[in-house]
Amino acid sequence: MKQDQARPTPRAGIMDIEAYVPGKSTAPAGVTKVYKLSSNENPLGPSPKAIEAAREVAAKLDVYPDGTARRLREAIAEVHGLNPANIICSNGSDEILGLLAQTYLAPGDEAVFTEHAFMVYKIYIQAAGAKPVVVKETDERADVDAVLAAVTLKTRIVFLANPNNPTGTYLPFSEVRRLHAGLPKNVLLVLDAAYAEYVRRNDYEAGIELAGSAENVVMTRTFSKLGLGGARVGWMYGPAHIVDAINRVRGPFNVNATAIEAGIASIRDRAHLERSVLHNERWLAWVSAELTVLGLRVTPSVGNFVLIHFHDDKKHSAAAADDYLSQRGYILRRVTGYGFPNALRMSIGTEEANRGVVEALTTFLKS
Ligand SMILES: *Cc1c(COP(=O)(O)O)cnc(C)c1O
């Protein structure tokens, strides 16, 4: 009985959660032109077709959306060659990650993720009352043997961001298969493929085949990194029994009408996707090479961002660089919470933004 307490109290563990801190979006006062490179958004913006679709739906905002997001699931299924019945759409893929934790974790259970993994996993694991188990990485990359060694009888979920944010590193699919093969059948493997569209590697797979054949694998995806971060559209593909369970837990209208229409238009706009991926391919290589020439270590990335490591002297630390860049309108992401106190994550931006950051860092390092 808690009747002696003076006010409502959150469940045990909730107040231990460190709230997610999103990338900054503003520059110091007086800076006129701002380049937001802190949230891995698409520098080419949304698909023009998605903008048009969102405009059209605005006149019908009184009408509830289809609670099953059927047309969006069908559009995704068509593009990726999937069965729409095995897809669930969500309010960003964050929501589906939370629903998976809520559905498969109970107090006392454990869920595993790696040292520098996307931070949202830990939050949802704790919110479900379960124990986060953090596994060491090797060379800023998930280590399959270390993950398997961390699995116990209490483990219920393994979260793998592939590629990972904020490192940009990835596991070849042979490694993902090895991970899956080593997991007990009752452990759910969540393949978070938020950056799949950007990856240009022959040995990479997002996980469609594995999630389509195994009973304990789901793949999560998002529209956020391709131009719809503000619309909040994500999805999951997985076995029918998991779809069935999640559909019982999720909000009845979890994807709003604007997100549905913008999502449908966006995924059908293959030309916009291609432009976005080509832009990234070109500028990811350019930014990585230029920063390396400046003497900064850059973690090799296959995503739409790079992790830049700064020097040990205070004058040229990540914090100092962040100040210097912010004053010039370049907003990057501090990643101390991800275990990188002396690094910044930079989203690949427009040509102007990319050139501007390299130029600013050139003078910063000479200062
Ligand atoms: C951005 C991101 C997501 C989810 O983003 P949403 O906007 O919620 O779809 C999921 N995983 C990783 C690794 C990300 O970087």
Structural class: alpha/beta
Oligomeric organization of the protein chains:
single chain
Coarse morphology: globular
Mean pLDDT score: 97
CATH topology of the largest domain: Aspartate Aminotransferase, domain 2
Unreliable segments (pLDDT under 50, ≥5 consecutive)? none
Number of strands: 13
Bound ligands: pyridoxal-5'-phosphate
Major sheet strand order: 2-8-7-6-5-3-4
Strand content: 15-25%
CATH architecture of the largest domain: 3-Layer(aba) Sandwich
* CATH class term of the largest domain: Alpha Beta
Name given to the CATH homologous superfamily of the largest domain: Type I PLP-dependent aspartate aminotransferase-like (Major domain)
Describe this structure in words.
The chain is of the alpha/beta class and 367 residues long. It folds into two domains: 14-45 and 271-366, Aspartate Aminotransferase, domain 1, CATH 3.90.1150.10; 48-268, Aspartate Aminotransferase, domain 2 (3-Layer(aba) Sandwich), CATH 3.40.640. It is 38% helix and 16% strand. The protein has twelve helices and 13 strands. The chain has helices spanning 48-58, 70-80, 92-104, 120-127, 144-150, 173-182, 208-213, 240-249, 257-268, 270-293, 318-327, 351-366; strands spanning 35-36, 87-90, 110-114, 131-135, 155-161, 188-192, 217-222, 234-237, 297-299, 305-309, 330-331, 333-335, 340-347. The strands form three sheets. It has a seven-stranded mixed β-sheet, sandwiched between helices. Strands 9-10-13-12 form a four-stranded antiparallel β-sheet, with helices on one face. Strand 12 and strand 13 (340-347) form a beta hairpin. Helix 2 runs parallel beside helix 9 (257-268) and helix 5 packs parallel to helix 6 (173-182). It starts with 34 loop residues before the first strand and ends with a helix. The mean pLDDT is 97.
